[in-house]
Every structure is written in structure tokens, then in C-alpha cells.
């Protein structure tokens, strides 16, 4: 990886925008008293986006419903859940370990165990050649053939040095972009490289003190610009076109940082509106708000368990809100094979799932 770069005026412009957007996100503490309350649902949204790039077919509603359903979860949901576990472990380990092979192997093991691809050496570097292309491609026809296994050790050592030492002389956004490209090109695992590589971006931004809370995730941008994402990476490999990749990455940071400011603000506004409407309630209705701020899809049983009350008491709370003038939760069919009543705080769910409109 280059340790020094020449910056065109266009790249400088994109980098400036990205750095400014990161600064606004870092200032989110001023606008929101406790951003930590948003981290759980926000990370679920981004874990889903990262898994969907790899072909996982699930919606955010599916992820939330799996937490209250008593049915066996699908393979797609398991992959999202393992990503959440791996992400949590990565940030915990980073408090004790630098970004090295040791951290990578531990996180990869958690990501891949118990899901599709489990047989593909969780927590171990690959020991066989791989190639990336369409079905039926061979090493001679595939558009990308990662390095042979015998070179992985030296390549990852260079990656570690770039991340923890000399790469830190570069602007943080540039270092993150090059670090991600380098990891994806080394392709050290048989499976899960993309998810690990995208997770590392946020880990590096936290390490460089660009983020206090893990609210910036580029996965959604990469998913919605999937062809451009892969083409930009391949352009560096084939033509050495680093600038195009860096500009793409900067645009991703700019857009997702804006999203990570406006979306949490919208979520907090809704929660505060719910609290104001429930302020005069004598029941457990105010406590229900704490539950839906974590998961906007609930069942009678999940509410009863969370509040420590009977199922009839939980049903009464849900029906009381649904019939009120300011109803913010309503019944929406049933959940699972048991046919349990399913209730959804639709506006709050939409604030996480839907597109955002930004003010210029």
C-alpha cells in the first residue's frame, strides 16, 4: 500500500466533504443526550446491509421479529446474528489488542461458526487457492485471483504495519479506504472476507478517534452501489486506479455520515414524542416505550416478559395504546407458528428502514 499519495483537486474536494461529515457525526453527542440508546437497533440495520451484500435475503423487520418469535430462525437471520456477535467481539477485543491477525482470527471464528460456510475453516487462514468470479470460472478466466496461501502471512504482516504504524500518517478516511482495499485483496479466509473487511472500517475509525459511538457503517452504501463498489476495488487491482476507489469511498463516508446524523435524530424525536404522549398514563405504557426503542416489533409474551407482568396485563397495555388518540403501536397479524399477536411501532420501524431526506 502506498504510504504517500498525490491528491487531485477532485479527491481533495471529496475528502474534505467526508472529513466534514465525520466531524458532524462526532458532534452528535451535542444533539442527542444519550446516543448509546440507538446503537443496538442501528447496528442491526447495518449488520443486515453487510450480510445482504453477500446474498443474505432478509429484511430489517425479519431481524427484529426473530428476536420475539419462538420459532427456529432462518439461515439468513443466523448470519445476521453472527455478524452482530462478531462486531461486538471486535470492539471488545480492540480495547485489549491491536488490529492484528490474532484479532482477525478471533472475530472470523465467531462470524462463521454455526452458519452457512461453517465448514470453511472458521478462525483460520485459508490453506488453498481461491478465485472470485462467475459460476464456472477457473483461475485463468476469473476476474480476480487472490494471492496464494503461502503469501498470506507476509501480506497480513504488511497490512498490520499499515494499519497500526505508517498508514496513520495519512488522513483517516484515506487510511480506512486503503486498509479495506488491502484486506479485501489479500482475501485471507475461504469465506466471510467481505463482512470482516467492512467491519474493520468502523473499527479503524474508532481507533483513530474519529467516532465516539459506532454509528457510521458504509455497508448500506456499498450494497446500494454494489457494482460500483466491486468495480472500484477491481480498478485498483487491474489498473492501479487508486484515486477512483478513494473518491468512491469518500462519497460513501459523506452520505452515510449524514444518514448517521439525521436518522438517529429522527429516531430520538419519535421516542420523545411517544414519551410525551404517555406521560399521563398510569399503567406500564411509558415502560413500553423503552422496549420498542430497542425492538419496534413486539408480541404479548415479549412485552410481558420484559415488564415482568402477566400476558393479560401486557395485552391490556398494547390495546390501550392502540385505541388511544395518539396510538403509535398497532396490531399487525401474528408472529410465528404459534400465532401470537404481533404489534408494530410502524413510524419507529420506518425511521430505521426507510430512506432519509436531508436538508441542504
UniProtKB/TrEMBL annotation:
Domain Fido: 99-251
UniProt binding sites for ATP: 54, 187, 191-198, 229-230
Active site location: 187
Pfam families in alphabetical order: Fic, Fic_N
GO molecular function: ATP binding
Gene3D superfamilies with a match to the protein in the record: Fido-like domain (1.10.3290.10)
Keywords recorded for this protein, A-Z: ATP-binding, Nucleotide-binding
Superkingdom in the source lineage: Bacteria
UniProt-recorded name of the protein: Fic family protein
Lineage, opening ranks: Bacteria, Bacillati, Actinomycetota, Actinomycetes, Mycobacteriales
Amino acid at each position: 500500500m502506498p504510504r504517500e499519495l498525490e491528491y487531485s483537486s477532485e479527491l481533495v474536494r471529496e475528502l474534505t466533504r467526508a472529513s466534514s461529515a465525520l466531524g458532524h457525526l462526532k458532534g452528535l453527542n451535542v444533539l442527542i443526550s444519550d446516543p448509546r440508546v440507538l446503537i443496538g437497533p442501528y447496528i442491526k440495520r447495518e449488520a443486515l446491509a453487510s450480510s445482504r451484500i453477500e446474498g443474505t435475503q432478509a429484511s430489517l423487520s425479519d431481524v427484529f421479529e426473530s428476536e420475539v418469535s419462538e420459532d427456529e430462525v432462518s439461515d439468513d437471520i443466523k448470519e445476521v446474528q453472527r455478524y452482530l456477535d462478531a462486531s461486538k467481539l471486535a470492539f471488545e477485543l480492540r480495547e485489549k489488542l491491536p488490529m492484528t491477525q490474532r484479532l482477525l482470527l478471533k472475530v472470523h471464528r465467531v462470524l462463521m461458526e454455526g452458519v452457512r460456510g461453517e465448514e470453511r475453516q472458521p478462525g483460520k487462514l485459508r490453506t488453498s487457492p481461491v478465485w472470485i468470479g462467475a459460476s464456472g470460472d477457473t483461475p485463468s478466466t476469473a476476474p480476480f485471483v487472490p494471492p496464494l496461501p503461502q503469501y498470506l502471512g507476509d501480506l497480513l504482516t504488511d497490512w498490520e504495519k499499515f494499519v497500526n504504524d505508517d498508514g496513520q500518517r495519512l488522513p483517516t478516511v484515506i487510511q480506512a479506504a486503503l486498509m479495506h482495499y488491502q484486506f479485501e485483496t489479500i482475501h485471507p479466509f475461504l469465506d466471510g472476507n467481505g463482512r470482516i473487511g467492512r467491519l474493520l472500517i468502523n473499527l479503524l475509525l474508532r481507533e483513530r478517534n474519529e467516532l465516539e459511538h459506532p454509528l457510521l457503517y458504509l455497508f448500506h452504501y456499498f450494497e446500494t452501489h454494489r457494482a460500483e463498489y466491486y468495480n472500484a476495488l477491481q480498478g485498483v487491482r487491474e489498473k492501479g486506479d487508486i484515486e477512483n476507489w478513494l473518491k468512491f469511498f469518500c462519497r460513501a463516508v459523506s452520505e452515510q455520515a449524514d444518514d448517521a446524523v439525521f436518522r438517529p435524530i429522527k429516531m430520538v424525536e419519535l421516542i420523545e414524542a411517544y414519551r410525551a404522549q404517555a406521560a399521563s398514563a398510569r399503567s406500564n405504557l411509558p415502560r413500553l416505550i423503552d422496549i420498542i426503542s430497542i425492538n419496534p416489533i413486539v408480541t404479548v409474551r415479549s412485552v410481558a416478559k420484559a415488564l415482568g407482568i402477566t400476558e393479560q396485563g401486557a395485552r391490556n397495555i398494547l390495546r390501550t395504546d392502540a385505541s388511544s388518540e395518539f396510538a403509535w403501536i398497532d396490531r399487525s397479524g401474528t408472529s410465528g407458528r404459534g400465532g401470537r399477536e404481533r404489534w408494530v411501532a410502524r413510524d419507529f420501524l420506518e425511521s430505521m428502514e426507510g430512506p432519509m431526506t436531508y436538508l441542504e
